[in-house]
Design brief:
Layout lengths: L7 H11 L29 H12 L9 E2 L12 H7 L2 H4 L11 H18 L3 E2 L6 H14 L6 E5 L4 H11 L5 E5 L9 H7 L4 E7 L10 H9 L4 E6 L18 E5 L15 E5 L10 E7 L5 E8 L19 H39 L14 E5 L4 H10 L2 E2 L2 E2 L10 E5 L6 H19 L1
Parallel strand pairs: 1-12, 3-4, 3-5, 5-6, 6-7
Antiparallel strand pairs: 2-8, 7-8, 9-10, 11-14, 13-14
Helix pairs in contact: 3-10, 5-10, 6-7, 10-12
Length: about 450
């Protein structure tokens, strides 16, 4: 962020306008545990050569899928990225283009967004998609706010506890000052949302029900039964998809009557790249299209009758009066959305299905190996896609540290999010994992278990 030289008097005037007595009051919602109360301890000053050497040293400390076998998931997945995706993104007409305010000179950008939207509709089984959003977590927030706009003063949203913890935290952070109540419903023994507790939570003041499938535990939810319960109180049904490759095989939310599908498109040809930037998506039933946030590209004809593309809807406060804007947190991740569009176009229907089938089969193989050899417990019996929960007799942090010593990124510990599950961790398998890697995974875990037994 650039340095803004505000004088003390300027700061006092601005604080008076917003009604606080210090700048620190503006950051009260940030936990003290994550605030830095000292200056950064940076070495230098250095020449550019020295700076590059120092940063390269830091980079070498990162553990990546390049020099480790990776079984990481929990919202970011290692899928194959065709080389031409990045190569096409480097073309100047894509890399340097910005918001297509002038459609007459932005036809290429608008067409790529239109194609991206079309992919989203085909994959989710819903009618209208926007031009992409920041990421999966803020996309869920946008869906909740959309539900509020159409709910006729209902103020309660039901969210499955098996929705990604970061997504749930983002929702809670954003709605805590909007008078909305978030009710979380736990999962049952199979790892799916508990239907009885969901039914109890769905009272007449519930405006929306949000579930993730495959959920954070890796289990595929029963869309049909959830939709039936939500329909009983006329709540907006929100499907969350954190692993977008699953749409190449699993039944889409639109086929089960869901109103909104949101999620993260990172799996569509976008490298994990240390957590971002990613691309969120939102697709809705036709009746909700005018309540969507962000931009929507449509197709029309020009004065000569030729095919043309325009920004049909642009409900951001940059485009219209703030009071009529549907969101102030959204943006179109145009370049990342283009990467997803290129990937989806290259893979096609058969390619996407092949990726998904490999994910299912390989995950099933590793899960069965771990279960039948008695090396680990599989605590949740529900069906999975490419990710599953593993439980051992030792804390997950110790087991994963042992994997790291063997250059295996063995999974993501769940105890950070659910303190009662300190011995549980998530294991994700994609088309990038070989049988040799999975067999080695089993052998390393065997060594950990045997060592403990001794």
């Amino acid at each position: 962020m650039r340095y803004i030289p505000n004088a003390s008097e300027d700061i006092r005037e601005m604080l008076a306008v917003v009604g606080v007595d210090s700048i620190d009051r503006l950051f009260e919602t940030i936990p003290d545990a994550v605030k830095l109360d000292r200056l950064l301890d940076l070495p230098g000053p250095w020449s550019e050569i020295e700076q590059r050497r120092w940063f390269n040293g830091l980079a070498r400390k990162n553990r990546t899928a390049v020099d480790h076998d990776s079984f990481l998931g929990a919202g970011a997945y290692s899928h194959f990225q065709p080389a031409c995706v990045d190569q096409l993104l480097l073309r100047s007409e894509f890399l340097t283009s910005y918001t297509p305010y002038q459609p007459e000179v932005s036809q290429g950008t608008l067409q790529s967004i239109f194609e991206y939207q079309t992919h989203q509709c085909l994959l989710t089984g819903l009618d209208v998609a926007n031009a992409s959003l920041y990421d999966g977590s803020t996309a869920l927030v946008e869906a909740v706010l959309l539900a509020e706009r159409v709910s006729r003063n209902r103020k309660k949203v039901v969210v499955a506890q098996s929705v990604h913890p970061h997504y749930r935290d983002t929702v809670t952070t954003y709605v805590q000052n909007l008078g909305l109540e978030v009710v979380e419903v736990p999962w049952g023994p199979d790892g799916r949302i508990d239907p009885e507790q969901l039914r109890d939570a769905c009272t007449d003041d519930v405006m929306a029900v949000a579930v993730q499938s495959p959920n954070f535990l890796g289990v595929i939810e029963d869309y049909a039964s959830i939709a039936s319960i939500a329909d009983g109180v006329k709540a907006t049904k929100i499907a969350v998809i954190a692993e977008a490759s699953s749409l190449g095989l699993l039944s889409p939310p639109g086929a089960h009557g869901f109103d909104v599908a949101v999620g993260e498109g990172q799996a569509w040809g976008i490298a994990p790249q240390f957590g971002g930037p990613y691309v969120g998506f939102m697709v809705v039933r036709d009746v909700l299209k005018r309540h969507m946030p962000g931009r929507l590209v449509g197709e029309t004809v020009d004065v000569d009758g030729r095919r043309a593309f325009v920004l049909t809807l642009a409900t951001r406060e940059q485009h219209i009066r703030r009071g009529k804007a549907t969101s102030n947190i959204c943006t179109n991740e145009a370049l990342i959305a283009l990467a997803a569009n290129i990937y989806l176009s290259l893979m096609g229907r058969e390619g996407l299905r092949e990726v998904a089938v490999q994910c299912v089969q390989k995950a099933a193989y590793l899960r069965q190996q771990l279960a039948t050899t008695g090396l680990a417990e599989i605590p949740f019996s529900g069906p999975i896609y490419n990710e599953f929960t593993v439980r051992t007799s030792r804390p997950a942090s110790e087991v994963l540290a042992a994997f790291a010593e063997q250059k295996i990124l063995g999974g993501v510990a769940i105890g950070e999010f659910f303190p009662e599950l300190q011995n549980d961790f998530l294991v994700a398998v994609t088309e990038m994992n070989t049988r040799e890697q999975m067999d080695r995974y089993v052998e390393v875990l065997r060594g950990v278990v045997t060592k403990e037994a001794r």
